[in-house]
Amino acid sequence: VHVEHAVRLLICDYWYILPFEGRHDVPVFGYQISDGEDVLVFMTDSGYCKYTFEGMTVLMIEANFSEEILQKNVEDGRIDSIRAKRVFQNHMSIERVVDMLKSNDLSKLKEIRLLHLSDGNSDEVMFNRMIQEVAGVPVIVEEA
Questions:
Q1: Contacts for 64 with CB less than 8 Å, ≥ 6 apart
Q2: C or N terminus of the chain, fewer CB within 10 Å?
Q3: Considering Cα of 118, then 119, then 122, then 125, what sign does the dihedral take?
Q4: What is the pLDDT of residue 78?
Q5: pLDDT: is 6 or 83 the higher one?
Q6: Where are the alpha helices (DSSP H) in 9-104?
Q7: Residue 6 banded pLDDT, cuts 50, 70, 90
Q8: Is 52 helix (H, G, I), strand (E, B) or coil?
Q9: In whole angstroms, what separates CA 65 from the centre of its chain?
Q10: How many Å apart are CA 40 and CA 38, to the nearest integer?
Q11: Collapsed DSSP state (helix, strand, coil) of residue 44
Q12: Helix, strand or coil for residue 127?
């Protein structure tokens, strides 16, 4: 599904904002914001993104956990399976971020900012490397 099918809001004859639905256990939205040149896509607190984005120049996206690290933490008793299931369903894994990037045209992408990393279920260095390999643009991990 391409996000252009969403309702476009024009703010001050300058900014176009397209809200789009995310997936969480409460209603959440991401936003595609454009000034006519640059296109920022912002999404956090969502288990995945079903949309693609044309002309994306900056991506700010949750990369909450690694599926492998989360599973290891369950096996080692550091997180209970009920909580792990909620994290898995409602937050974006680094693997899903990679899949999202692979499904979009990245030719105009300038930078990616990874948001909302879990303290115990993520690895900043690994995440940076994984995204850099796919996107080839600067990757910044935002502190909580």
A1: 87, 91, 92, 93, 116, 117, 118, 121, 122
A2: C
A3: positive
A4: 97
A5: 83
A6: 67-75, 81-90, 94-102
A7: very low
A8: strand
A9: 11
A10: 7
A11: coil
A12: helix
Higher pLDDT, 36 or 143: 36
* Beta bridge partner(s), residue 111: 58
**The pLDDT value given to residue 143:** 74
> If DSSP codes are grouped into helix, strand and coil, which group holds residue 7?
coil
Average pLDDT, the chain: 91
Residue of 23, 22, 43 whose CA lies nearest to 33 = 43
Q: What is the DSSP letter of 108?
A: T
Six-digit token string for 101 = 């990037």
Residue 108 CB neighbours (<10 A): 14
Angle 128-117-31 from CA coordinates, rounded to 5°: 90
Residue 74 CA to residue 80 CA, distance in Å, equals 6
57 confidence band (pLDDT: 50, 70, 90): very high
Q: What is the pLDDT of residue 3?
A: 52
What Cα–Cα distance (Å) separates residue 65 from each residue in 1, 4, 89, 108, 122?
25, 29, 11, 27, 5
The tokens of 97 are what?
């971020």
